[in-house]
Design goal:
Elements lengths: L13 E2 L2 E9 L3 E7 L5 E7 L7 H15 L9 E5 L6 E5 L3 E3 H8 L4 H20 L12 E4 L2 E4 L27 H5 L5 H17 L9 H10 L11 H8 L10 H9 L9 H11 L93 H8 L2 E5 L8 E3 L2 E3 L1 H12 L7 E5 L5 H7 L4 E7 L6 E10 L1 E6 L14 E5 L4 H8 L3 E5 L2 H9 L6 E4 H9 L5 E3 L7 E8 L3 H16 L2 H10 L18
Parallel strand pairs: 10-13, 10-14, 17-18
Antiparallel strand pairs: 1-2, 2-3, 3-4, 4-6, 5-6, 7-8, 8-9, 11-12, 14-21, 15-21, 16-19, 16-20
Helix pairs in contact: 3-5, 3-8, 3-9, 5-7, 9-16, 11-16
Length: 622
């Protein structure tokens, strides 16, 4: 395992919010450092080589790498934390993962077996499914790019990503490590998700046996074996043996998809794609210390389309064996983000997990269905699977965010709720929205009258609910008329500022600048006064301000002061950890597939407003 190297002469001391502690590794494109923020968050910070900073092609390649990484939901992968591609020192910061690579683990402690092998297979299949759902082909899946973290295996390194151009052509040049490359990568054929499936199977076979399945003493021998020989997988246990064998088919069309692999390993029907609930289950199982229930018991409490019979007995008639815990789980100190120098990786909107636009806002608030008693379901995940219905409590009267108009609900958070419900297996027609005051939210969840609360709900230490998310980071800011001479908060010194009701935003802005307050009842009153020039500014949550301003006939701008960070979360009933993890997974997918960006543009595009488009760091579900 590489040790952390010291910073060299000419290395930066800081990149963005990250203080650099040392070098993790270096490759053809750049250097990877260990960074840490003032809050203690660590990251693997990849800096483009100085020789490329003036190279537009290199910057473009770096930008494509970021887009690829951002599109992948963080199920058993390393999420992107921050990035800056426009400055003099462009960088991408990814989650720092403590753990040795799979290759180092096997070489030091021997092949994996039992529960450790199962965790590896499920975790890496979950990661590969998330990667393919984002329209990405990893193309260098191998033991070095699997890190054995304390919470389960993680797949890393999208550093050779290359997004398809408008013509849809794919570079056929071979990229990857020869022993784990698919036949079509060697022969110059089209390289898509099946190539990753082949590499996944080779990686799992290596983990189980300690031997490279298509090894040899020269590259020529390795390539010949990949093209013409069959790998020996007889030492693998069933049902993993059969899955791996099918994935090593020489013909791409003969291999199962990543979705089918994951569903098979979890014991579910393979007729449909893996939903976010399935991905959440895969990540949860991969992170467990034990797999007490074995392969066949893992299809419970999921939507009907993801459930199915357990794996069939092997040809000898024996049922799949139950697994016991395998010794200790090895976790080490440093994770190396592998850098591939200028390689190419193909990507496409592949399969049912790919999305190009957000779900339509078709949810209606009808008469709420009669909720099942709280004791009827152990989790709202079970309720969603059985009834295909959910009730979501919202705030009302917030244009652009959540607004009920004659029983029809519209807004950013309404579509967020619809999206989350869909990921849990509930169609838009099965979602009911109800208006709720802040005081009523806990009782609505406890009584079962509401299943979720999505209402610009900040994460706090309130122990009466369980928070999933956050799904967005908002800020206290100031709204002004576009064209007025105000570019920063200090410019409002001595000016009139509207103060709506008991808004806490007023005091936060007052702490930053002295203004004349004009008190009114509601934000609607404030917008009317701002429209007619009776006040110069309105304080508030920047998302709320943009929602009110977007429907106006004149143009407004949010100053961008960002005086606070408000992490808005989804509330579920206290203690429903499974629901929390499933909702958190849906939020990750919502950012990965571009839905959040599309919704922000849809509801706030008429305002000069820079919303947050990076996924907030997820909170623990407990």
């Amino acid at each position: 395992m590489p040790e952390l190297g010291p910073l060299g002469r000419g290395d930066p001391q800081q990149l963005g919010p990250f203080r650099l502690a040392g070098r993790i590794g270096e490759g053809g494109q750049g250097v990877v450092y260990l960074g840490q923020t003032d809050a203690g968050e660590r990251a693997a910070v990849k800096l483009l080589h100085v020789k490329f900073t003036g190279d537009l092609t290199a910057r473009s390649r770096f930008g494509r790498e970021l887009k690829a990484a951002e599109r992948v939901a963080s199920f058993c992968t390393a999420r992107v934390i921050a990035a800056d591609l426009d400055g003099d020192t462009p960088y991408i910061a990814s989650e720092y993962i403590e753990g040795r690579s799979l290759r180092e683990t096997v070489e030091d402690t021997g092949p994996l077996s039992g529960s450790a092998l199962e965790r590896l297979a499920v975790g890496t299949a979950t990661a590969l499914t998330a990667i393919h759902h984002a329209g990405i082909v990893h193309r260098d899946f191998k033991p070095d790019n699997v890190l054995m973290a304390a919470d389960g295996p993680r797949v890393v390194d999208f550093g050779i990503a290359r997004i398809l151009d408008s013509t849809g052509t794919i570079t056929s040049r071979a990229v990857g490590t020869p022993a784990y490359m698919a036949p079509e990568q060697i022969s110059g054929g089209e390289v898509g998700p099946p190539a990753d499936v082949f590499a996944w199977a080779s990686t799992v076979a290596f983990a189980a046996t300690g031997s490279v399945p298509f090894g040899g003493n020269s590259i020529a021998v390795v390539l010949n074996r990949v093209l013409n020989h069959e790998a020996d997988v007889s030492d693998l246990p069933e049902p993993l043996r059969g899955v791996v064998r099918s994935c090593l088919s020489k013909a791409p069309g003969g291999r199962p998809s990543a979705d089918r692999i994951l569903l098979s390993l979890l014991g579910h029907a393979e007729a449909v794609g893996a939903s976010t609930a399935v991905l959440s289950q895969g990540a949860e199982l991969a992170g467990r210390e034990t797999f007490a229930s074995g392969w066949a018991d893992r299809g419970r409490n999921l939507p009907p389309e993801a459930s199915g019979p357990p794996p069939a007995p092997d040809p000898a008639g024996h049922a799949p064996p139950r697994r016991s815990r395998r010794g200790r789980w090895v976790a080490a100190a440093v994770a190396v983000m592998v850098l591939a120098g200028g390689g190419a990786l193909a990507a496409r909107q592949w399969g049912p997990g790919s999305r190009s636009s957000p779900p339509p806002a078709t949810s209606k608030a009808g008469t709420p269905h009669r909720p099942a008693t709280p004791a009827s379901f152990l989790s709202l995940v079970d309720k969603a699977a059985k009834t295909h219905r959910l009730t979501i409590a919202m705030r009302d009267l917030l244009p652009g965010i959540a607004l009920s108009d004659g029983g029809e609900w519209h807004g950013f958070e309404v579509e967020v709720g619809t999206y989350i419900a869909k990921q849990l297996g509930v169609p838009a027609g099965g979602v009911s929205f109800i208006a709720s005051s802040m005081a009523a939210r806990v009782s609505l969840l406890d009584s079962g009258k509401a299943d979720l609360v999505i209402a610009t709900y900040p994460i706090n230490d309130n122990n009466q609910v369980t928070f999933a998310g956050p799904y967005y980071t908002a800020h206290v800011d100031v709204l002004v008329r576009k064209g007025d001479p105000f570019n920063k908060v200090a410019d409002l010194e001595g000016r009139k500022m509207c103060s709506p009701g008991s808004s806490m935003s007023t005091g936060i802005v007052q702490d930053a600048v002295k203004v004349q307050l004009v008190s009114v009842g509601t934000y609607a009153d404030c917008m009317n006064m701002l429209h007619h020039g009776e006040v110069d500014a309105v304080p508030g949550d920047d998302l709320l301000l943009a929602g009110f301003a977007d429907r106006e006939s004149i143009r407004y701008k949010v100053l961008g002061a960002r005086l606070t960070d408000e992490r808005y979360a989804v509330a579920v009933k206290k203690g429903d950890i499974r629901a929390c993890k499933a909702v958190r997974g849906a939020i990750a997918q919502m950012y990965a597939d571009g839905t959040v960006r599309a919704l922000l543009k849809k509801y706030f595009s008429k305002v000069d407003f820079r919303p947050e488009t990076m996924r907030p760091a997820p909170e623990s579900c407990g």
